[in-house]
């Protein structure tokens, strides 16, 4: 296996209006998604959102009811899986239990009828990529979860596929190992230059690893964008609640930059969706880490909210303050648990003013409203 | 606990251990004293040798045919959706609930000179004269395969159904054609089921009695028939016991050898 520094070998993927119906159930609803060559794209969504079905359509295990799947300039919609030349890492790893590590990794080479003399070197290189060179003779049952994961990866890379699909490959690992593997996968992606489509239900994992994240819900593509875009500019309340940690509060539109929360006017640096006089449901998404305790040093034009402290919870790396607005609406604030922050917090029951910068003030339409539909297109 | 188990232990003891011990003793008893005469006859007389050879040959052929016919059925059941799989298995097991005797007579009628099978063959011009399908080895094999087929299909299905479907998908995604994936992944992983099914069918076939008696027409003499003839025709309990003991030892030897390859629980369906 040769390392590729250019992304010329990798291919783009184009999912064009793909739908999949099982009887009356719609698993995929008219999904269009373009992935650039060499890009790392995550499909993120709750279970039942269609992300695994979409991956199946790319891998050839799911026949779309409508639409087409292109890899590079090739229509692959009806191509059987074994002709697609796509590397897949399964959630269960799907290693062959009756074969050694070496035989598992050599499987794609054997299937492709490559000369047997070339196998050992290619297997060695693929295993070296995942730091398992020397494990060729081991049985699968002798490996730890993390090692199995790496073997599955080596096996999916050994035939130098231009596209690699990963179906929640880290979900069976413990937290620490998962975080290590996330970084390793990222580095491997850079080394290989292959296009990677990664399925996960873990938003943090998706944000950490991906160039872009596609958010799916009920078989529909809700939003696709860079992690930062999704975080700072969510399309609707579903994305806002799924990405990050936020409180959603109903607000009414005043004009393009102002909304009303109860009696308080809130200003946003971003344009408020919808038009004046329109009665669409808008929600203010307050991300817990963007809300600050007002110590008087903030600029005069920040949004200020008066609240009362209900509860303070120590969460190790952070402190979570459960607050209540004047009308009783609960909101949450999170801040690092350092000494200064701790001492800044008034006792439970005391009143407190919190600040929210207009740049951090996000107003989204309620998911399922027509703005959502219009914005996706 | 022991008190609760006592009735079962008593039944097993009086109906299994005692008769077996008696059988064993009988086989070693001749002309009023201890003797290996019965065993000497089994190992020296041609009729015994031929019978055991025939028994093993028929068992072997039946086992192979049952495997060839049972494997695709079990495979189909393992890849079909649950509902259809249950239907296939029900069809396999259904005849199982009718008496062996009834099924043997049914085959007799189907396969006889003027039976449906011969009439169809002649009507379609494949043969001019009726084929000798019963009262011989062929008839015995046909009926025995039919009766023992569930014992092949069920262990095969149990094994196949546990092979994760992921592995087939992985094989395909890695470039393996359906045939390649079947030969390299599915078949090797189903081998423990193959071994279990073959052992069950072979061992059951070794001791088969009613079917060869009816279908063989008296000419195909298997080991079990030797036992009954020694008793019914010659009242020679000693010889009959010796044949039974040899048969039992063969079965135990087979289980021992296979047990070293796969766990016995698997053959007996406990796993």
Topology overview:
The complex is a heterodimer of chains A (377) and B (271).
Chain A: E1 13-22, E2 25-35, E3 40-44, H1 51-59, E4 66-71, E5 74-75, E6 86-89, H2 101-111, H3 119-129, H4 145-157, E7 163-167, H5 175-192, E8 195-200, H6 203-209, E9 212-217, E10 220-225, H7 227-232, H8 237-242, E11 246-255, E12 258-261, E13 264-267, E14 282-287, E15 292-293, E16 303-314, E17 318-325, E18 330-336, H9 339-344, E19 351-356, E20 362-365, H10 370-376
Helix pairs in contact in A: 2-3, 2-4, 3-4
Chain B: H1 2-27, E1 29-30, E2 33-34, H2 37-44, H3 46-79, H4 82-93, H5 100-111, H6 116-123, H7 137-160, H8 165-173, H9 178-206, H10 210-215, H11 223-232, H12 237-261, H13 264-267
Antiparallel strand pairs in B: 1-2
What does the model show?
The complex is a heterodimer of chains A (377) and B (271). With 377 residues, chain A is α+β, with helices and mostly antiparallel strands. Chain A folds into two domains: 13-231, Rossmann fold, CATH 3.40.50.300; 237-376, Nucleic acid-binding proteins (OB fold (Dihydrolipoamide Acetyltransferase, E2P), Beta Barrel), CATH 2.40.50.140. In chain A, 25% of the residues lie in helices and 33% in strands. Chain A is built from ten helices and 20 strands. In chain A, strand 11 (246-255) and strand 12 (258-261) form a beta hairpin. Chain A is elongated. The two termini of chain A are 41 Å apart. Residues 1-7 and 370-377 of chain A have low confidence and may be disordered. In chain B, strand 1 and strand 2 form a beta hairpin. In chain B, helix 2 (37-44) crosses helix 3. In chain B, 76% of the residues lie in helices and 1% in strands. By secondary structure, chain B is an all-alpha fold. Chain B has 13 helices and two strands; from the N terminus they run H-E-E-H-H-H-H-H-H-H-H-H-H-H-H. The model of chain B has no long low-confidence stretch (mean pLDDT 89). Chain B folds into two domains: 1-35; 48-267, MetI-like (MetI-like fold), CATH 1.10.3720. Chain B is globular and about 75 Å long. The longest helix of chain B is centred in the N-terminal third of the chain and has 34 residues, at 46-79. A two-stranded antiparallel sheet of chain B has the order 1-2. Chain A binds chain B through residues 59-61, 80-82, 84-88, 90, 92, 94-98, 107-108, 110-112, 155-156, 159, and chain B through 164, 166-167, 169-178, 180-181, 184-185, 188-189. Chain B: InterPro entries: MetI-like (IPR000515), MetI-like_sf (IPR035906). Chain B: Keywords: Cell membrane, Membrane, Transmembrane, Transmembrane helix, Transport. Chain B: This is ABC transporter permease.
